[in-house]
Amino acid sequence: MAGPILIFDSGIGGLSVARALREHYPHAAFCYACDNAWLPYGVREDRTLTARIVRVCRAAVSACQPSVLVVACNTASTLALEQLRAELTIPVVGTVPAIKPAAAASQSRHIGLLATTATVRRPYTQQLIDNFARDCRITRVAADALVIEAEALISGAKPNAKRLSTALAPLWQAAHANVALDTVVLGCTHFPLLKPWLEADAPVPLTWVDSGDAIARRVGQVTDTLVSNRHDGRCFTTAPAALLQTGLAAYGFFAPRCLSLDDVFPDNLPLEN
Ligand code: DGL
């Protein structure tokens, strides 16, 4: 019988991808794993983060025995996809900023990229821009503060309006530029969870593009055995996460259990300067 679809993120951002996947595959089984002990990934140093992502994904794969791993994190995918594919024997589907559909949608040819500090700087992201949006102006906005605001949602808090507006200010400036930005890529899986507040804060109507549907379609291409209810709803974290329980339940996941990593890895890791 087919194994579940395993969704991995640093935190709860992967739930935005879980939502798209459950819509596409209502009869599939899902597991969720997040590295909440190391959240946020977007300000971590690349080398230690790559090793950590591989370590946690290997442990989660061993706990869930999935058919496919969905790395529902742009920060992880733009860094470690190649290594994950080399180390795992199941298909690995990544999440990268939706530059291509945004370039197809933009009339003004001015696009915003809202993502973590790491993702906006990554060579992988630059390659996507070079390949698919060469004729577009790209306003890159690193908004790590929004990751924290999205995390708070899951325990019932509303985003802080001031922190939201401060993080989004560079985008709104670009929306008033001579050639106005008309399309925004949500290049972090946490951000679709904030979409109602992003839309409400925007000074003009904008087109928002995320990767959820594209990932769901890709999952269907890499595995043909998605109908299963074996292990549906299992959830793993790397640190205790009682506060996440109610929010996870709303997405069909059980109370999280702590993932046992295959060896000791320090939780107080270097942050990027
Ligand atoms: N949800 C993750 C992403 O898509 C990153 C959040 C973080 O910084 O940990 O990039």
UniProtKB/TrEMBL annotation:
GO molecular function, one term: glutamate racemase activity
SUPFAM superfamilies: Aspartate/glutamate racemase
Pfam families linked to this entry: Asp_Glu_race
Pathway(s) it belongs to: Cell wall biogenesis; peptidoglycan biosynthesis
Uppermost EC category: isomerase
The entry's keywords: Cell shape, Cell wall biogenesis/degradation, Isomerase, Peptidoglycan synthesis
EC code(s) of this entry: 5.1.1.3
Active-site feature positions: 73 (proton donor/acceptor), 188 (proton donor/acceptor)
Residues spanning the signal sequence: none
Protein's job: Provides the (R)-glutamate required for cell wall biosynthesis.
NCBIfam families, per the entry: glut_race
UniProt xrefs under PANTHER family: GLUTAMATE RACEMASE (PTHR21198:SF2)
Family: Belongs to the aspartate/glutamate racemases family.
Protein name: Glutamate racemase
Annotated organism of origin: Halomonas llamarensis
Gene: murI
